[in-house]
Amino acid sequence: MQAEPVTRGLRKAAPRPDLFEVAHLSDPWEALTAELKPPMSHQDAFLEAYRCLLCGGPLTPAPCMLACPAKVDVPSFIGAISVGEAVEAAEIILDANPLGGTCARVCPTEELCEGACVLHSTHQRPIDIGRLQRYAIDQAFRDGNLLVPERPQHNGMRVAVIGAGPAGLTGAFELAKYGYKVTIFDSRAGTGGLVRAAIAPYRQLTEPLDQETARLWELGIEFRLGTTVDSSLREELESSYDSILLAIGMGEDAATGCEGNDLKGIFSSLPFIEKIKLAYLPDVKNKVAVIGAGNTAMDVAREAIRLGAAEVTVLYRRSEKEMPAFPVEFDEAVQEGVRFAWLTSPVRYEGNGRVNAVRCLKMKLGDQDSSGRRKPVPVDGSEFLLEVDTVIEAIGQLPRKDFLFAIPGIELNSGLIRAASETGATGNPLYFAAGDALNGGATVVEAVRMGKVAAAGIDAKLSERGGAK
Ligand code: SF4
Question: Is 158-251+398-465 the same fold as 36-142?
């Protein structure tokens, strides 16, 4: 069955008066690590599981399951929790999604499974699927039960996976279950890619990435972390592996290129979050401007509030309607006190050593551009100064063009890999691809889905060939 693409829903965040209070706690680390979706007690999990109508059946899957990119069998795992079988529930989840514990914490569930829950139709609160999923996996892992599938017999073929983020880990896991000998390469010292380095700490610090990785070890997957795949290693992989899965993600932050960006107090979003996750808390002082209005921009704005900034303003050159962030993320940022300046573009950072103002222009929307959105056009004479102490640029990431250009046959579209959506096959028959390097960056669970698709694509291709090269 062809997987459905993730679509952006329109769910609004429920009012949560506690959010403002938590975001403004006087201890920044406490505020930064106060979990948005905290664990459930046994009793709460049972009660919540009992509310579930266990919809669907073999011919009509439940809407929550259909809305899950990883196709986790939600009613089955919730049913298992309701009869006290949390470990069985975890098994069901991890069978469909090896990053089930991570996704339970970081998935935009309001947009996906919980957004599709039938209880909405009777104006009831949807089932708290994310936290139930976390409950099941926490229970299993807490007992040291990693639920590692039985190692299949090696089929004689080897696959290299470049990138140990969600797409790479999932692809590797699926391939190992098919019987391939898999090696994962990543230049970082740890697994998880941006999940480890750049997911807001109030969503996930690192747990349970290590347990999720340990399951892959136990399945016989080899890790070569701290290893950059340069052209000579790439050529070595091409000659010694039967297939290569590119799960390389995106590169560094794109920059606005505004004059004055070398002033102190100006950050790019990914290093800013990474610093926080390592407990080096940036001194953002009082007034912060965040450039961009995607989900990462919402996160850094909320992190700036938690770091103690009194005023955090998101500057976006289009209007609220074109904002790329999920409505839920926007609503929660507003509830925490983040302000928004729509149709506003930075043109220069001012300061003396440290940034003290952003020179901005007001914009209006003109004709549609190549992205299908209306193009922002400067309004004459609209320049103004916004006083700030800190600027965080969060306008997206750059594709890894240099690495990709060097691989013969790989076709790119605006720097993103062109690959068959139903198999992950690229223009080079040795290479398949999955994750952010194809779509420019979406959700973790979408990368999981793509990792599964590419693993099935590799298996189909190598099975057709009928053995090692
Ligand atoms: Fe339970 Fe809602 Fe899914 Fe139905 S749609 S199975 S009530 S979570």
Answer: no
- The domain spans of the chain are 36-142, 158-251+398-465, 266-393
How far is it, in rounded angstroms, from Cα 34 to Cα 186? 30
Instruction: Please choose, from the candidates 80, 54, 136, the residue with its C-alpha nearest in 3D space to the C-alpha of residue 103.
Output: 136
Cα 51 to ligand 1 centre (Å): 9
CATH for 158-251+398-465 is 3.50.50.60
- The residue nearest atom 3 of ligand 1, judged by CA position, is 64
Site to probe by mutation for ligand 1, drawn from 52, 54, 109, 114 as the one with most ligand atoms within 8 Å of Cβ, is 52
Probe residue for ligand 1, chosen from 72, 74, 76, 120 as the CB with the greatest number of ligand atoms within 8 Å = 74
User: How far are the Cα atoms of 31, 68, 431 from residue 3, in angstroms, in the given order?
Assistant: 38, 10, 21
The phi-psi region of residue 250 (left if phi > 0; otherwise alpha if psi is between -120 and 50; otherwise beta) is beta
Query: What residue ranges line ligand 1, CB within 6 angstroms?
Result: 52-55, 62-64, 74-75, 78, 117-119, 127, 129
DSSP string, 40-67: PPHHHHHHHHHH------SSS--HHHHT
* Cis peptide bond upstream of 208, omega within 30: yes
Distance 332 CA to ligand 1 centre (A): 24
- Chain centre distance of CA 63: 22
CATH topology of domain 36-142: Fumarate Reductase Iron-sulfur Protein; Chain B, domain 2 (1.10.1060)
Q: Phi and psi dihedrals of 168, rounded to 5? A: -65, -45
Would you identify the CATH topology of the domain 266-393? FAD/NAD(P)-binding domain (3.50.50)
| Assigned token pair, 136 | 């099941």
Residue 85 CA to ligand 1 center (angstroms) comes to 18
Query: Could you list the pLDDT tens digit for every one of the 469 residues in the chain?
Result: 333 333 344 566 677 878 899 999 999 999 999 999 999 999 999 999 999 999 998 789 999 999 999 999 999 999 999 999 999 999 999 999 999 999 999 999 999 999 999 999 999 999 999 999 999 999 999 988 899 999 999 999 999 999 999 999 999 999 999 999 999 999 999 999 999 998 999 999 999 999 999 999 999 999 999 999 999 999 999 999 999 999 999 999 999 999 999 999 999 999 999 999 999 999 999 999 999 999 999 999 999 999 999 999 999 999 999 999 999 999 999 999 999 999 999 999 999 999 999 999 999 999 988 777 889 999 999 999 999 999 999 999 999 999 999 999 999 999 999 999 999 999 999 999 999 999 998 899 999 999 999 999 999 999 987 766 6
pTM: 0.93
